[in-house]
Amino acid sequence: MAELKPKPTSTTIVNLDDMAIPKPPTFDLDQFASDGPTMGVKRLPMALPVRKFSDLKDFGRLHPDDEAYWSKPLALVGIPVKGQRHKVPHLIRPDLAEKHLPAPLINRRRLALGTDPEGKLFLCEVPCDNLDNAWNRSNLDACEYAKTRWVRADSKNDVGLEGYEISFPLSTKAFREPEWPAQPLSELIGIAFKERVIMSDDHPALLRLIGAEPPQA
Fold it and tell me: What is the DSSP letter of 51?
C-alpha cells in the first residue's frame, strides 16, 4: 500500500503596514462647552437645622424681609429622642398643645431664615413671649439687629448676669452680604420639620411627651 504524504501547506505573510487599524475618535472639548446655566434641574434645599440665635456662637444674620422670611408665632415642643443629646423640636397644633400640655412645655416662637458667615443657613427661633425675661429680651434684640448687620449674642451667665451680650464685627467689611435662597419660607420649614409635625392626639411624639401608651396595632 502506497504511503500517503501530507499535502504541502501555504503560509500567508501579512504586512502589518497594509492593515487598517481603527483609530480612537479625536477628543473634541467643544462638545462640552456650556453657554449658560442648565435650567432643567432644580436643586432641592436640604433640611435646615433649627436653633436659637445664641446657639451659633458666632456672628449671624437673619433675613431682612420680615413679611416673607419670618413666620407668624408657632407652637413648638421639644421631644426626647433616643440617641439625641438634646430634645428635638416639633411643630404642634396650638389646640392640641393647650389640650394636652402644661404651658411651660409649649414654646411660642417665630422662625426666621438665618445664616452664619460661612453661608450655612438655619431656621432661627425668635422669642415671642415672656419678653420681660432678660434672656428672651436680649435674644430678640440680637435677632432684630441681625436683619441689617452681622451680630453675635454671647451669654453673660459666666459673669453672673442674665441675658446675652450683643456685639458686632470690628469691621463692616469683615463678612460678605448673605446670599439668600429663592425658596419660600413655608417650603424650607416644611422640609426641616418633615415627619416632626404633631397634628393628632395619637401622634407618637405627643404620646411620648405626655407618657401615654401607644395605641395597639
Answer: E
Q: Which H/E stretch holds residue 155?
A: strand 152-155
Altogether, the residues listed in the chain come to a count of 217
Helical segments of the chain, H only: 66-69, 94-100, 134-145, 185-192, 204-210
Please tell me the pTM assigned to this model: 0.76
What pLDDT tens digit does each residue of the chain (217 aa) get?
555 555 555 555 555 455 555 666 666 666 555 565 544 444 545 789 999 999 999 999 999 999 999 999 999 999 998 888 888 999 999 999 999 999 999 999 999 999 999 999 999 999 998 898 999 999 999 999 999 999 999 999 888 899 999 999 999 899 999 999 999 999 999 999 998 999 999 999 999 999 987 776 6
**No. of helices (H) and no. of strands (E), the chain:** 5, 9
